[in-house]
Design a protein that fits this description.
It is built from 18 helices and 18 strands. It is α/β, with parallel strands linked by helices. Bound molecules: 3-methyl-2-oxobutanoic acid and zinc ion.
Length: 517
């Protein structure tokens, strides 16, 4: 029988920490729900001491999902951190506190200004303190990959003796290489006398593009927990990508002889959700979940595939829930066929949600000859918007072209009081048509944001493909994302910008955001 590898997802903590990837509370809950459905064993929901928002998010995720999966909160080796993490996880069935302290010479000398024995003492004390709140304790010697090996063994051994049930060996700066990391795990197994009392875990960053390779090398050496994120999200170049780890272990079961509990047909859907919420687009040729991951262009490959798919395909696209561009339904397709396709794509919608998406589908099929799977996913995405939006776009008009000053007129509806919505109109000029419409919306709402990123791409193939606009704005020092899809890219851009403004306004209700100011 093969061993199980624990999949520890840190999208909501290490992933969310990466620049431009912050999520609102409803978005975090949505991602947590998807992770539970995906079957991850541990969700690291955040760093409760970091901010009141982080605390509330860990608490909310714990309350909602803490009986179904292990929910973990991060803490430094500080009393306040540990108490705050314990408070956020209080009362749930499966809490875990993750305590960390750096052990590499450079971190000890310059960051912590602590000597080796002070580090050991602090680690032991704080693991014991965390243990007084819950049984399930993870300890991480931060920057372990650059830590002197015998000292690493000493800290790990004492942390286990103090009560750590998982010892995580982070490659915090993405410095390790596969053989090096394999040797670190092997050394720990050989030199830590009580190593059998804890699960060895990996946590690899991707600065050299080796996070997945290093994690797999650690599994080969005996690690039985892998820390990873959806789409490899994370600080700098990111963390190890969950979907790549899971599919490598599954596809090469013959070699690794380990299993995970991940429901792999949900991988693409989860990847899509996280990309949609964070605004971090998935590159087309990304392994497992990229648009091209299962595309075969070369004639020789296509020929082989027709004879036997296994000639050029090592995984089945349905095993990862891949949504291709295969033409599906047209405007005469009934609700029944539509519902069946939605289910095949891995989505569960209630009757009301299904009806709304179906109405949008009919409207789209009127504008567009071919409706692809990717279009349907975009429509579902639109309906599963999780942040309540105060401002709605009623209409806009743009005048632009050579020799004219780009000008936009916009009407927005303020749904602050949904029973008595009010409409406002304004106009603005801009550097281009998109800039003009964004400025007009800002004039109505009474805010000024800075556009940090703006991208437009086609959702599917064909000349009549829908355009997907993604924007990132900076408002009061925080980044907000918006994404929208339409057959008109100016409309998609306006809607995406408005979505980001709505998030900014919702998070800063005390700011002066009164119409027309
Ligand atoms: O990269 C790292 O070292 C971390 C620790 C907190 C585990 O994220
Ligand atoms: Zn990390």
């Amino acid at each position: 029988m093969s061993d199980n590898v624990i999949i520890f997802d840190t999208t909501l903590r290490d992933g969310e920490q990466s620049p431009g990837c912050s999520m609102t509370m409803p978005e975090k809950l949505k991602v947590a729900e998807a992770l539970v459905e995906l079957g991850v064993d541990v969700i690291e929901a955040g760093f409760p001491i970091a901010s009141p928002g982080d605390f509330e998010a860990v608490r909310a995720v714990a309350q909602k999902f803490g009986d179904r999966t292990t929910i973990c909160g991060l803490a430094r080796c500080r009393k306040d951190d540990i108490e705050r993490a314990a408070e956020a996880l209080q009362g749930i069935a499966k809490p875990r506190i993750h305590v960390f302290l750096a052990t590499s010479p450079i971190h000890m000398q310059y960051k912590l200004k602590m000597a080796e024995q002070e580090i050991v003492k602090a680690a032991v004390e704080h693991v014991q303190m965390a243990k007084s709140f819950c049984d399930n304790i993870e300890f991480s010697p931060e920057d372990a990959a650059r830590t002197e090996l015998d000292f690493l063994c000493e800290v790990v051994e004492k942390a286990i003796a103090a009560g750590a049930t998982t010892v995580n060996i982070p490659d915090t700066v993405g410095y390790a290489t596969p053989t090096h990391y394999f040797n670190v795990i092997t050394y720990l197994k050989q030199h830590v006398s009580n190593i059998g009392q804890a699960v060895i875990s990996t946590h690899c960053h991707n600065d050299l593009g080796l996070a997945v390779a290093n994690s797999l090398a650690a599994v080969e050496a005996g690690a039985r927990q892998v820390e990873c994120t959806i789409n490899g999200l994370g600080e700098r170049a990111g963390n190890a990508a969950l979907e790549e780890i899971v599919m490598a272990l599954k596809t090469r079961h013959d070699y690794y002889n380990v299993s995970t509990r991940i429901n792999t047909p949900k991988l693409c859907k989860t990847s899509h959700l996280v990309s949609s919420i964070t605004g971090m687009l998935v590159q087309r040729n990304k392994a497992i979940v990229g648009q091209n991951a299962f595309a075969h262009e070369a004639g020789i490959h296509q020929h082989g595939m027709l004879q036997n798919r296994a000639t050029y395909e090592i995984m089945k696209s349905e095993d990862v829930g891949f949504v291709g561009e295969n033409m599906v339904l047209g405007k005469h397709s009934g609700r029944h066929a539509f519902r069946a396709r939605v289910t095949e794509l891995g989505y569960t919608l209630d009757e009301t949600q299904l009806q709304k998406v179906f109405d949008d589908f009919i409207a789209l099929a009127d504008k567009k000859k071919h409706v692809y799977d990717a279009d349907i996913v975009a429509l579902i995405d639109k309906q599963s918007n999780v942040t309540a939006e105060r401002w709605k776009l009623v209409q806009f008009h743009i005048a632009a072209g050579t020799g004219t000053i780009p000008t936009a007129t916009v009407e927005l509806r303020d749904e602050k009081h949904p029973n008595e919505p009010l409409s406002y109109r304004d106009a603005a000029i801009g550097d281009g048509p998109v800039d003009a419409v964004c400025k007009a919306m800002e004039r109505i709402i009474g805010v000024t944001a800075e556009l940090k990123d703006y991208q437009v791409r086609a959702v599917s193939g064909g000349e009549d493909a829908q355009g997907e606009a993604t924007v990132e704005i900076n408002y009061l020092g925080r980044r907000y994302h918006g994404k929208a899809v339409s057959t008109d890219i100016l409309e998609a851009s306006a809607l995406a910008y408005l979505k980001a403004l709505n998030k900014a306004v919702a998070e800063n209700p005390s700011e002066k955001t009164e119409p027309g100011v």
